[in-house]
Amino acid sequence: MICEIGEILDFHVKREEWTPDRAYRCDVTWRDYETHHSPLKVFEIELSGNVDHALSSLSHAYDSWRPEQLYLVIEDESDSERARKLIEPRIKGAFARISGRLRIVTWRDIYRLYSNLDKDRQLLKEIAKRVD
Fold it and tell me: Which residues contact 13 (CB under 8 A, 6 or more apart)?
């Protein structure tokens, strides 16, 4: 669904993309154009509860590419609580430096967005189209 949302919004989407040093594989990345070196958006989908690993991957993606936005897609609010503790700047959690770029969403949020976008897919593609 994340890939299709990106395509609807006219991003160049890649699945399972390695960071330049091949240390981490990111689940989904979005770029303006295929030839752009760095993605604008990086997504990690963590439904097994291993939030620490997903945050490590996003942190490394930030160090490697400096994307505009990082997204952690989780299964439920219990994972959200763990992630928030790790990124909370006032506590200086292990991942505090990415807190300003990170958005934590549940898979239900993604499903709801996808369902709504899919209804108007063609119009959205036209509106999102960028002129070269």
Answer: 3, 6, 7, 28, 29, 30
Contact between 104 and 72 under an 8 Å Cβ cutoff? The reply is yes
pTM of the model: 0.84
**DSSP helix/strand/coil, 46:** strand
Task: Please state, in angstroms and rounded to a whole number, the distance separating the CA atoms of residues 55 and 42.
Answer: 11
The whole-angstrom separation of Cα 104 and Cα 74 is 7
Secondary structure E strands in the chain: 12-18, 25-31, 41-46, 69-74, 102-106
Domains of the chain plus CATH, in order, are: 2-124 (3.40.1350)
pLDDT digits (tens, 9 = 90+) for 13-46: 999 999 999 999 999 999 998 888 899 999 999 9
Distance CA 50, CA 55 (A): 9
User: CB within 8 A of 105, min separation 6: which ones?
Assistant: 71, 72, 73, 74
Residue 4: CB atoms within 10 A of its CB come to: 13
Q: Quick check: 9 and 128 in contact, CB under 8 A? A: yes
